[in-house]
Design brief:
The protein has 275 residues and is an alpha/beta fold. It has a single domain (2-261), classed as 4-Layer Sandwich (Purple Acid Phosphatase, chain A, domain 2), CATH 3.60.21. It has five helices and 14 strands. The protein has helices at 22-35, 52-66, 87-94, 129-140, 177-187, and strands spanning 2-6, 11-12, 39-42, 47-48, 73-75, 101-104, 109-112, 146-150, 190-195, 202-206, 209-213, 231-237, 240-246, 251-256. The strands form three sheets. The protein has a six-stranded mixed β-sheet with strand order 5-3-1-12-13-14, with helices on one face. α2 (52-66) packs parallel to α3 and α4 (129-140) packs parallel to α5 (177-187). The radius of gyration is 18 Å and the shape is globular. Bound molecules: fe (ii) ion. The site of fe (ii) ion has 6 residues, from loops. The site of fe (ii) ion (FE2) has 6 residues, from loops.
Length: 275
Amino acid sequence: MKIAIITDIHYGGPDPGAFDVRAVVDKFVHWAQRLEVDLLLDLGDRIDEVDRTTDLANAGELARIFARFPGKRVHLRGNHDVVNLSFGDHEALFGTPAGHQAIDLGETRLLVWQPSVLLDRAVGFPETQPELRWLSRALDDDARPAIIASHIPVSGASMISNYYFEHNDDFATYPDHAAVRSAIADGGRVAMWLSGHVHWNSITQVAGIRHLTIQSASEQFTTMPDPACAYGLLQVDKSIARLEVFGRDPVTWEFPFVPSGDRRWPQPRPRVPRP
Ligand SMILES: [Fe+2]
């Protein structure tokens, strides 16, 4: 099973001198086609918002590039995608469903989870509680080990040294991220969680579930002064997962693909009493 992944393309924006990321997207689409991947996964924030007319034009340009991929595509919505455009706009432009989806990938399933990504700069992202029910039910529905994809990560991992989020870590995740982790831990069926949004490659393990984030296609802060031109390939084969990210910020991770319920993860020890 192979998934080609791209995220945080951030095409457009008000700076006319900014790096033109369309060539990276074009290369990614041709590469995914050559590899005959089972799925092309865009984890969101494909545009940088300007105004409705510009955003429609920029998203439309990307949609035409993505449409060259002949197989199944998933386009999650990121916070920048929805400032001026509706879910229906994205559905119409990209020709793919806007809501949550459970995708059958044979030995595994991809649960595309799309709680609100509307960022309120006063309070951050909204709680995910209403949307968490869909995720819990989808996990209950099928015993296969699951991969979850969301634009915004929920691992609670440190943002120290992250250009955008070290001093804004409340904008890096959902306010109820701990409740999300707790809800998916209950059934023990999740093996992996994939996200974008935080513009770096990262992996962390929470109670037996690997949470990974993938570098933005156009980000520069880890590869100054050049753009990362990042995209990735996830392969799951015989209970081994391998995620490779290409471009100027490359990384490869390989680990057992096992649902968290297959091994007991003990409760962390309580705080040591201090004198
Ligand atoms: Fe984002």
